[in-house]
Amino acid sequence: EKGGFKHFMLKEIHEQPRAIRETLAGRVSLDDGRVYLDPTKIPDSAWEGFRRVVIAACGTSWHAALVGKSVIEELARLPVEVDYASEFRYRNPLLDEHTLVVVITQSGETADTVAALREAKHRGCPTFAICNVPGSMAAREADGVLLTHAGPEISVASTKAFTSQIVALYLLALYLGQHRAVLSAADVRAHVEQLLALPTKLEATLGQDAALAELSKEFFRASDFLYLGRGVHFPIALEGALKLKEISYIHAEGFPAGEMKHGPNALIDERLPVVMVMPREAGNPASEVRYEKTLSNLQEVKARDGCVIAIVTEGDTQTATLAEHVIPVPAASDALSAVLAVVPLQLLAYHIAVRRGCDVDQPRNLAKSVTVE
Ligand code: M6R
C-alpha cells in the first residue's frame, strides 16, 4: 500500500508530479488559451463583477491561500484577503454579494473551514471550495468546487494536497482573469504552458531526495530552525517550518526575510540552521529585487555565524559562494517556483523526522482531519 516507500509521507511527496498532472487534466486548453472549470452555481455575470476575494483555511491549506493571494492579485487584478478559518468565523467579517469567498481544505471536513463556508453562505456570498475529497462537506455545500485530484492523502503531514492546491488556485486566478477580461487568450496560453511544464520540473526536484537525506545527518539534532522567504516564498517558508515542527517536533519558525531586523535577528547564532527560500526568475524585475534583498539578508545571517541552507534556482553561483548548503530547483516563473521550492523542505523535514525516530505518518497530538474545534 505504500508502494515500496517506507512511509506514506514519502510516497505522497513522490506522487506530486502525478497529482499536478491530474489536477490540470481537462481544465486547460493551449488551443483556445482558456481554463475550464466544472459548472458552478455562480452565474457568469457574478464571475465578471467580483470586487474582492476572501480566502479562509487552516494549517497547510492556509499557506496555500497565501500563495493564492499573490497569484490572484497578480493575474486577475482583484484584491484578496486571507483569513484563518477559525478567525473568520468569529470575526463578523465584512462581506457582500460581490465578494467571492473561497475555502481551501484537503479533507473538506475541517470544522472551522466548513463553518467559515456556512457563515459566508449565510451572508449571501458566492462560495467556492478547493478540496481534495469528492463528496466531502465542503465539496457538497459550496456553490462551486475545484477538486484537486491529488488522490487520497494518508500522512497527517500534508504534501501533495498542498502543491495541488497551489495549482488549483493558479487555475482559479486564470479563470477569474479570463472572465474579467484582464487576461487575453495569449496570456492564458503562456501561463498554461508554464503549468504544463511543472510536473517534469517537479520530477527533477525529487532527484534531490538523496542529497536531503544526507543533509539531515548534519541537522537532526538541532533544537530550533528558522525559515525565511520573500513574496510567494514567504508562505513556503511558513510551510517548511510547519512540516518540520509537526513531524520532527523541532521548534521552527518562518518569517518574511525583510522582518529579520525587526526582531528575529536576535535569535541567530552558530547553532541555528537558517533555511532561506530564494529562487529567482531571471528577467522578472520584482523577483530580481526580492532575490537581491534576500541575498543581503543571507549575508547578515552569515555575519552572525548562522548556518544557511539555501533553496535556489539552478545555476545560482552567487548564493553558492555564501551558503553552507545549496539545494537547486529548476528555473520557473516566480509563482511556480513556490511549488518546486517546497519539495526540498518536505524532504528535509521527512529525513530529519526519520533520523529522530519519530512516527512520521502519525505525529503525536495530531489528527489528519480536525473535525472538532
Ligand atoms: O483538510 P484541511 O486541508 O482542511 O486541513 C487543514 C489542516 O488541518 C492541515 O493542513 C494541517 O495543518 C496539516 N496537518 C499540515 O500538514
Automatic annotation (TrEMBL):
The gene is glmS. GO terms for molecular function: glutamine-fructose-6-phosphate transaminase (isomerizing) activity. Residues 42-182, 215-363 form the SIS domain. The active site is at residue 368. The lineage of its organism: Bacteria, Pseudomonadati, Acidobacteriota, Terriglobia, Terriglobales. Keywords: Aminotransferase, Cytoplasm, Glutamine amidotransferase, Repeat, Transferase. It comes from Chloracidobacterium validum. Catalyzes the first step in hexosamine metabolism, converting fructose-6P into glucosamine-6P using glutamine as a nitrogen source. Homodimer. This is Glutamine--fructose-6-phosphate aminotransferase [isomerizing]. Its EC number is 2.6.1.16.
